[in-house]
Design goal:
It is built from 15 helices and 13 strands. The chain is an alpha/beta fold. The strands form two sheets. It has a seven-stranded parallel sheet, with helices on both faces. It has a six-stranded parallel sheet with strand order 10-9-8-11-12-13, with helices on both faces. α1 packs across α15, α4 packs parallel to α5 and α9 packs across α13. The radius of gyration is 21 Å and the shape is globular.
């Protein structure tokens, strides 16, 4: 039996897409140990996994990018958080290696210290990425601001000129402190930020074309497996069964981002609409009255709602957005920060929905964008077909077996 250690950052949006991959590996006879958020350890035990919490030092460092005044500053704040966590998750991952003695390790792409520790370990390992990979490419714009792809010589010139400007902010924040961590672990310094990700023997990218942009220069290590859709087991509220007619789902981030305004504006936009509106707000605080056609809950399994939805209004988070598209449901994405401008732009480029920057969010604009998105169901179905073709958890488990286990054993 191959022993597999999975290590996540303190984000449910990174743990949950990993769960069906771990389930698939367990069904194939492999032993699974997980290090993740303390709050989710009982849930992992219920899957039959050996599970322990990640270091409290890692969990104590919170993302506060929502305080930033611009998208670029928010991205820089996210980078600073991952760098700050790196010394803690490096030591924590090495402790997990000693405790579990795994043959293979699967590491969250946001656990930058753990990725470095895996390099030093020298065993068989992979990174998993539940958001768009921030890899430099001649075929796509620089990652971060959500620029539209530009074709032809002028487009490539634009990207070449912008790349050092956009990525310079990230690299100035990331490289010096992260290279200090790498130096302490006898690793060579990074020259560019994405060398950290390119160093992984295998990268499980949880997306697929046509949602992800086509690139001719993907590294051989990258395997796109599509989104690995998973909801924790939960009973549907009784009121869900009583909903008649078309439904619009509204989601916000599972990590606090001060994006409750999206739900408040969506409620105003759809108060007089013919739609049932369901808003899930795991970390947002709402103000104001709730109309009769609106239901608000901290959590409802999205799968059951998406089976009857005509549109999903998301904050541009990769998990919620791809989950809707995997059901063939078009999306209106309102990005607030992090990777969300990139996700929202991909929605629009794929013809699978619309995007509305948070700074332009008003009830009138949002209602218009929702109406437009509802008419883009064919594009959402094309994306769903691409996701299915990528293979999901089964393809991910096969990539781990074929590319890593022969090395490990």
């Amino acid at each position: 039996m191959t022993r597999i250690l999975a290590y996540t950052s303190p984000a449910r949006g990174h743990l949950f897409p990993l769960v069906p991959i771990l389930d698939e590996l367990a069904q194939r006879g492999h032993g699974i140990a997980v290090r993740t958020l303390a709050s989710e350890v009982p849930l992992m035990h219920s899957r039959g996994f050996a599970a322990e919490p990640i270091s409290a030092g890692v969990e104590a460092i919170h993302l506060e990018d929502w305080r930033a005044a611009s998208t670029q500053k928010a991205l820089a704040a996210s980078v600073a958080t991952f760098v700050q966590r790196a010394p803690f998750d490096a030591r924590d991952f090495e402790r997990a290696l000693r405790d579990e003695q795994p043959d293979v390790a699967l590491i969250d792409i946001n656990s930058w210290g753990a990725l470095t520790a895996a390099e030093r370990w020298g065993g068989a390992w992979a990174a998993f990425s539940p958001y768009p990979l921030a890899l430099r490419s001649r075929d796509v714009p620089p990652f971060g601001p959500g620029l539209a792809p530009a074709a032809g010589p002028l487009g490539r010139l634009r990207d070449a000129l912008l790349r050092p400007v956009v990525l310079g902010v990230i690299e100035r924040k990331m490289l010096p402190p992260l290279n200090d961590v790498r130096k302490s672990m006898d690793r060579d310094p990074l020259r560019h930020f994405d060398e950290l990700f390119r160093g992984a023997p295998l990268v499980l990218s949880m997306t697929a074309e046509p949602f992800e942009y086509h690139r001719d220069d993907w590294p051989d290590s990258v395997v796109m497996v599509g989104p690995c859709d998973w909801d924790p087991p939960a009973e549907l509220p009784d009121w869900v069964q009583g909903l008649d007619g078309p439904l619009v789902l509204i989601t916000t981030s599972s990590e606090f981002q001060d994006d409750g305004r999206l739900v408040e504006v969506a409620i105003q936009a759809l108060a007089d609409s013919p739609y049932n509106v369901v808003a899930t707000v795991p970390s947002a605080q709402l103000r104001g009255p709730i109309p009769a056609n609106v239901h608000v809950a901290n959590f409802v399994p999205h799968g059951a709602l998406l089976d009857r939805a005509v549109c999903a209004v998301t904050h541009g988070g990769m998990g919620a957005t791809q989950k809707a598209l995997a059901h063939g449901v078009p999306v209106c994405a309102v990005p607030f920060g992090r990777d969300q401008p990139e996700v929202a732009r991909r929605v629009a480029v794929a013809g699978a929905g619309t995007r509305l920057p948070a700074r332009r969010l008003t009830p009138q604009r949002l209602r218009s964008k929702i109406d437009d998105a509802i008419g883009m169901a064919p594009g959402a179905r094309r994306v769903a077909d691409g996701f299915r073709a990528a293979g999901g958890p089964s393809a991910a488990a096969t990539a781990v077996e074929q590319r890593l286990m022969s090395v490990a054993l």
